[in-house]
Amino acid sequence: MNSANRRVSEMTTRMIGFGGLTVEVFPAISIGGQKFSTLNDLAGKFDLFGSREAQEKGAAKAATEAKAALLIKILRQMKIIRETVLSAEGQQPGISQNFNMPASSSAESIIEAARAFVAAATPLKPFS
User: Given CB 3.0 to 4.6 Å as the disulfide criterion, which of 32, 62, 74, 102 pairs with 26?
Assistant: First the structure.
């Protein structure tokens, strides 16, 4: 919830508190009582909106952290594959040219390089 929405929520809470203190002045059947009832309903919806927004931010943060962890795991596996290919360079000259680490650490670069690893490794047969 941004600061403007937070201020509106706080103001609404104060207004509802005022309405609760003045029930005898604004009975439920009066226009003022009806307005306080409407305000109470809207405040509940506003609070629900704030709760959902906080949950969605938490879920987005968790997804971002999971993505970062997976990218790190992919990079580690790619480094292992790259080291293995470099050790096989003596038996198959030029093999390492197809297994280059990504130039950048962006998700797109890592995924693109990983796909290139898969494409380069698929036709290879195990060493005997």
Answer: 32
List b or e across 48-73, with b for residues whose CB sees 16 or more CB atoms inside 10 angstroms.
eeeeeeeeeeeeeeeeeeeeeeebee
Q: What is the span of the domain harbouring residue 88?
A: 3-121
Residue 80 located in a structural domain: yes
> Is residue 126, in this structure, part of any structural domain at all?
no
Q: How far from 33 is each of 10, 13, 30, 44, 68, CA to CA, in Å?
A: 20, 16, 5, 17, 53
Structure letter (DSSP) for residue 127: P
Q: How far apart are CA 28 and CA 24, in angstroms?
A: 9
Tell me 96's DSSP state.
Answer: G
pLDDT tens, position by position, 20-77? 778 788 888 889 888 888 888 888 888 888 889 889 999 999 999 999 999 999 999 9
CB 96 within 8 A of CB 86: yes
First to last CA, the chain: 62
Residue 128 is assigned to a structural domain of this protein: no
Q: pLDDT per residue over 89-124, tens digit each?
A: 888 888 899 899 999 999 999 999 999 999 999 887
